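testing teh design pipeline on a random one, pls ignore if ur not involved
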């Protein structure tokens, strides 16, 4: 069979798509990934064939309208969700012609895309083939962001004679059942597995010393969101709790930001490190609330203190907070003494580790991507 994956929307959604696409190739199927040009090196570097379908990048899709005008930044949770839905829709619209051209030339048997890779539903509808839609992280779809995406995609829907985004033939969800929202639609469960890039390892990446180890990261978005750069890390690294030497601190981020951190804090290990490799060595992770970051840490049973860069990042974490595996603060600008108190609490209160491990066990018990590939085979 031929599996056409539609991916993109930043690095994290690509990472989330890789395990299923790789499982399809391992099962002997042909796979091509359609994605924005900015994601091609990442996708091909992860061992998957890819075709660029738009020169538009994620930053422009999110921050500018279709005429290229800068948009005012959203205020409030609902506005943020609408803003995000429309941004993903603009990126999908920009890649629609290229994705359709690829599909008509290659003739896939099934189209598979992330929740907000919305060219996928339109191409599957046009070709009359099954559509598989999958979550990138913990289920977080709301009526607000889906309506925003639908409204933004209205010209393309009308082009295909549609008044709504087509439903999937099969919906695949990686959310652990214990923290899956009650309103979530029925789904084929799938085990979360990491799809991030790798590098040659050093011993400290997979083994730690006697001190508690805390990792700080702001994910791949730190490359283009100033609030997730040095302004995110400095208050944490200056916190007396973390710079007294009793706790080993590791900063996971890319260059050139990592170089700036190493220069300002020579005692800190800072740089790109595969999160799935270092996660089992961690006692706590402090981060911005990115979905792929959350899932990678949950699958390793790591407690998480979340300092969300946007209000909407807290939505999917609420059931995880209630479960007791994470603690999400109101924002990434909380007073340092309050952050320190929460770090101390999470390091000393073993219930966070216990609940995080409960979710890790639950994730490990879900069907592997290879099993989901078999379910997809049954659609054709």
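output:
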């Amino acid at each position: 069979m031929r599996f056409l994956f539609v991916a993109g929307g930043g690095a994290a959604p690509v990472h989330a798509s890789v395990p299923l696409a790789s499982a399809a190739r391992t099962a002997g199927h042909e796979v091509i990934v359609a994605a924005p040009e900015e994601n091609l090196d990442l996708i091909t570097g992860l061992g998957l064939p890819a075709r660029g379908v738009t020169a538009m990048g994620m930053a422009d899709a999110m921050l500018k309208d279709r005429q290229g005008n800068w948009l005012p930044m959203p205020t409030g949770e609902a506005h943020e969700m609408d803003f995000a839905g429309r941004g993903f829709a603009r990126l999908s619209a920009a890649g629609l012609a290229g994705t359709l051209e690829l599909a008509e030339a290659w003739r896939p048997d099934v189209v598979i895309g992330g929740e907000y890779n919305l060219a996928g539903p339109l191409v599957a509808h046009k070709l009359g083939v099954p559509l598989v839609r999958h979550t990138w992280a913990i289920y977080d779809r709301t009526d607000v962001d889906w309506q925003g995406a639908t409204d933004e995609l209205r010209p393309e829907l009308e082009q295909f004679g549609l008044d709504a985004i087509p439903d999937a033939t099969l919906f695949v969800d990686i959310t652990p059942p214990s923290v899956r929202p009650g309103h979530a639609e029925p789904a084929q469960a799938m085990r979360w597995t990491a799809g991030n890039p790798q590098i040659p390892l050093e011993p400290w990446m997979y083994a730690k010393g006697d001190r508690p180890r805390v990792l700080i990261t702001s994910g791949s978005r730190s490359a283009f969101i100033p609030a997730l750069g040095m302004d995110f890390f400095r208050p944490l690294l200056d916190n007396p709790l973390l710079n007294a030497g009793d706790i080993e601190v590791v900063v996971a981020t890319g260059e050139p930001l990592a170089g700036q951190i190493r220069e300002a804090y020579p005692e800190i290990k800072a740089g790109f490190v595969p999160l799935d490799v270092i996660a089992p060595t961690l006692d706590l992770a402090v981060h911005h609330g990115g979905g792929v970051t959350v899932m990678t840490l949950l699958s390793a049973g790591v407690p998480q203190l979340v300092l969300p860069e946007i209000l909407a990042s807290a939505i999917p974490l609420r059931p995880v907070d209630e479960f007791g595996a994470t603690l999400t603060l109101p924002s990434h600008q909380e007073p340092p003494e309050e952050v320190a108190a929460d770090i101390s609490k999470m390091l000393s209160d073993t219930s966070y580790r216990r609940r995080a491990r409960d979710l890790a066990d639950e994730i490990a018990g879900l069907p592997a991507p290879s099993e989901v590939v078999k379910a997809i085979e049954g659609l054709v």
